[in-house]
Each structure stands twice: as structure tokens, then as C-alpha cells.
Write a structure and sequence with these properties.
The chain is of the alpha+beta class. It contains eleven helices and 31 strands. The strands form seven sheets. Strands 20-21-22-30-25-28 form a six-stranded antiparallel beta sheet, with no helix packed on it.
Length: about 475
């Protein structure tokens, strides 16, 4: 039995400003008409069980909605209250599944990878099952095709044993001179971050080499709270857990770790340059997406989410224009984007975390305009969905229906509003917006008051168990 474990907790900071902490790269349509997360789920082998997914608690409704969109089931969604890297995440999965599913083989995959040759990917998995059954901890190594400094590398022993190599060491994101050396060697592979092993094998090894992680994960699961597909951990206990990757916690120490080389058209899309490598390009080697006009531009990635973006006479650049942030960077410096995100966080700038358009379990809102004492939002409510029953301490609201039919609760009144009709929600009055129809509801909301932050929402009742 192969049991996929999908790790979906990354923040994708090097793909800012398109990727942000509240809506990171794995949930964005970067390659085709489906997100990286959805592609990961859809390319699972047919014989595999429904996946167990591990994600940030803030992403739980994005995960559930994206699974619904592709009509895929799951065996639970573990919600991490705080990110602790991959070793604790996999330990949680192994503990959860070992007894309930008779010690399955775990196939650990990241939600943000690109794999172009799915048949070769499935064949690699099939070839590795016997290794996992026999107590090996398999990591899949990618034969390097270029001297990438954004990837980790695995050094192997020179002698290949059947279809695998023994592991000698792990190297984390080397400098260019070392990466050049690794590419020319026959015993270095890109570290794909994909693994296969029995649940009991992994638990035995982590108990041997990182017992503090196992103890914390066991305590975190003792009082877990299951809410539909969501599995909530004991936050206090999980916060105590050390933050370590599988490589550092287990694979660097175990005597049973092996590398299975694979050639599947793999990329982890860790930067704009890496995304450029896998996208279709024009005759000047440019990736062009959105409303873009170029003149004498080559080897570049130009993206516009809406407005016209024009570039003239430049080479080897990245221009990413979103609704609230513009990035311009030389392609050779795109690994430094992370430092911009860190500065935004240090300065408490919301652009590090959220887009102008913010997705919620009921739909989304788009902050169209704002100024002193006012804010204007376009709100879309999904069919058969509703916002929380709530009130505001500092603001009042005007609602205008653009399309659809709204069911309004305002104080003790409950009434319908149709297109071109409006209503007023006074400050401090309990209210709710609902869509009882099979088509989306769109409204314009005009807020006015002394404070307009999202934390001025006092929820009285909520279908999504938010505070």
C-alpha cells in the first residue's frame, strides 16, 4: 500500500510578489490551468491511496477548495499551527497512519514541484517499492543538468548498487564554483525532497536520531481535534517541537538511506529563473504573460496581472507586476528576492503576506481603493456560501449588489437584495451576508470609520470555526 503524504507548508518567498505567505506558490497556477498543488495530487499513481495533506492552518480552506475543484478525496488534512520543517510533518503523518493502515509505504512529496514526465515518475516509484519494503529510506535524486545554486545536492558513494546509490553526504545550496564541480561529477544529484519508506522505518530512525521530534509529535497528536477533514494539533505541544528537515534529522545519520536516480523533468520552481526555464518562450527567449508589450528585450520573464506593462531595450531581467506590488530584478539576482520579503515583514508591510485580492472560505474580497477613513472592496460570495455573523466596533458599511441575490441579516431584520439595490450596516450592529443561489454573488462594500483593519471583526457565529 502506497500512501502519499503531500507537504504543503512552504511560503514560496523567492516567487514574491506573486507568491505570498497567505497564498503561496503551491496554490497558484504557474504552469498550466491548475495550481502546483492540484498538479501534484492529479499525477499520483492510480494504485496509491488518497493522500494525507499537511499544511499551514491558515491555508486549510484553500487546500479544501482546491481539492474540491479537481474532485479529489483525501485521508485527512493535518493543520500545523506553526511551521516546523519536514521532519516533524512526516513524523505526524507516520504516527497517524502506521496503525490505521497496517504500516503503509509513505510516498512523501512536496506540493510545489513540477514533474513533466509522469510515466517516468510512476516507473521510478514502482521500482523503489521493494527498497522501501526492505527497510530502506529512499530519496529520489535528480541528475543535475546545470550548476544551480538554489538546490541542495546529495553526494553518493561511487559504486551503484542495482538501481540505487548509498548516501555519502548532503550539501545545502552550494556556491557557483562548487555547483559547477558537482554537475561534472557522476556522484552528485539534486536533492528533490521526495522520499519513500515504510511508516515504521521512518519512526524507528527518527526515534534513534531525533527523539525530541518524535516525542513532541506524539504529544501533539494525543489531543488532536478532528473537524471534518481537518486534523488540528495540540498547539502548545507542537510549538515545542524542534524545526528540522528530514535530511538533517534522519537522512544524514541513517545507515539505511539510499538515492534512486530519476529523470522526470523535475523542478521545484524555487525562483523566477527556474520558472523561466520550464515555461514556453518567444523567439527572443522571453516568457511573456498578461498585458505585455516588449521592444528589443531578450532572455527575460515579464508578467502583468492586469495593467499594460511595457519594457524596452533590456536583457536578462524579471518584471512581475501585480495589483499592489512591482518587482524588477536582474535574473542573476533573483535568489535575493527573499531579502525584500524579510524587509517587508520587518516593516510590518502587508504586501509580504497578502494580495490585494484575499481568498476566504466563502469566496474572496478585492480591496479596490482606500484613503483616510474609508475603504472600498469588491466582494464575491460563492454559491451556497455565507460570511460569518459579525459586527464591527469601529466602522459602518454600505453594500451595493452588483450581480446575484443577497440574503442580508442586519440586526433583527432579514431581507433580500437584488442587483442595483443597496443597504446600510451601522457600526456595532450584528450582520451577515449570504448567497443562497447556485450562481456567485458580487457586491461593492464601502467601509467608513476610524479604523478599518481586518481585526475589527467580532464573529458571533461562523461556519468555518474562525475566531
Amino acid at each position: 500500500m502506497i500512501f502519499p503524504i503531500i507537504l504543503s507548508g512552504g511560503s514560496g518567498t523567492r516567487l514574491w510578489p506573486l507568491s505570498r505567505s497567505e497564498h503561496p506558490k503551491q496554490f497558484i497556477k504557474l504552469i498550466n490551468d491548475e495550481t502546483l498543488f492540484q498538479n501534484t495530487i492529479k499525477r499520483l499513481p492510480l494504485e496509491a491511496e488518497n493522500p494525507l495533506i499537511i499544511c499551514n492552518e491558515n491555508h486549510r480552506f484553500i487546500v479544501a477548495e482546491q481539492l474540491r475543484q479537481i474532485d479529489k478525496k483525501n485521508n485527512g488534512i493535518i493543520l500545523e499551527p506553526v511551521g516546523k520543517n519536514t521532519a516533524p510533518a512526516v513524523a505526524l503523518a507516520a504516527l497517524r497512519l502506521k496503525d490505521d493502515f497496517n504500516d503503509p509505504i509513505l510516498l512523501v512529496l512536496s506540493a510545489d514541484h513540477v514533474i513533466q514526465n509522469i510515466e517516468a515518475f510512476h516507473n521510478s516509484i514502482s521500482r523503489s517499492v521493494s527498497l522501501a519494503k526492505n527497510g530502506k529510506l529512499v530519496t529520489f535524486g535528480i541528475t543535475p543538468t546545470s550548476a544551480e545554486t538554489g538546490y541542495g545536492y546529495i553526494e553518493t558513494q561511487n559504486t551503484k548498487k542495482s538501481q540505487y546509490y548509498d548516501i555519502k553526504s548532503f550539501i545545502e545550496k552550494p556556491k557557483k564554483t562548487l555547483a559547477d564541480k558537482y554537475v561534472k561529477s557522476d556522484n552528485y544529484f539534486w536533492n528533490s525532497g521526495m522520499f519513500m519508506f515504510k511508516a515504521s522505518t521512518f519512526l524507528k530512525e527518527i526515534n534513534e536520531y531525533a527523539p525530541e521530534i518524535l516525542i513532541a509529535c506524539k504529544k501533539s497528536l494525543q489531543f488532536d481535534n478532528k473537524d471534518a477533514d481537518f486534523i488540528r494539533l495540540n498547539e502548545l505541544e507542537f510549538t515545542k517541537c524542534p524545526s528540522k528537515s528530514i535530511d538533517y534529522a534522519v537522512m544524514e545519520h541513517t545507515k539505511d538511506g539510499v538515492v534512486v536516480p530519476i529523470n522526470v523533468g523535475w523542478s521545484d520552481i524555487g525562483s523566477w529563473s527556474m520558472l523561466h526555464n520550464v515555461k514556453n518562450k518567444d523567439t527572443n527567449n522571453n516568457v511573456i504573460e498578461g498585458n505585455v508589450i516588449l521592444k528589443n528585450v531578450d532572455n527575460s520573464f515579464i508578467y502583468s496581472s492586469s495593467r499594460l506593462t511595457s519594457v524596452i531595450g533590456l536583457s536578462n531581467i524579471i518584471v512581475i507586476d501585480t495589483q499592489d506590488a512591482l518587482l524588477v530584478v536582474d535574473r542573476n539576482s533573483d535568489q535575493k528576492i527573499k531579502s525584500i520579503v524579510e524587509k517587508l515583514k520587518n516593516d510590518n508591510r502587508k504586501e509580504s503576506d497578502i494580495h490585494r485580492k484575499v481568498f476566504r472560505p466563502w469566496g474572496y474580497y478585492d480591496s479596490i481603493d482606500s484613503g483616510e477613513g474609508f475603504q472600498v472592496k469588491r466582494i464575491l460570495v460563492n454559491p451556497m456560501s455565507k460570511l460569518s455573523l459579525q459586527k464591527h466596533k469601529f466602522r459602518s458599511e454600505h453594500w451595493v449588489v452588483i450581480s446575484g441575490t443577497a440574503m442580508i441579516t442586519c440586526g433583527t431584520e432579514v431581507f433580500e437584495l437584488n442587483e442595483n439595490q443597496s443597504t446600510y450596516i451601522p457600526q456595532g450592529v450584528i450582520h451577515r451576508l449570504e448567497n443562497h443561489n447556485s450562481t456567485p454573488l458580487e457586491i461593492i462594500e464601502i467601509q467608513s470609520g476610524s479604523y478599518l483593519g481586518e481585526d475589527d471583526i467580532i464573529r458571533v457565529q461562523d461556519d468555518y470555526q474562525r475566531n
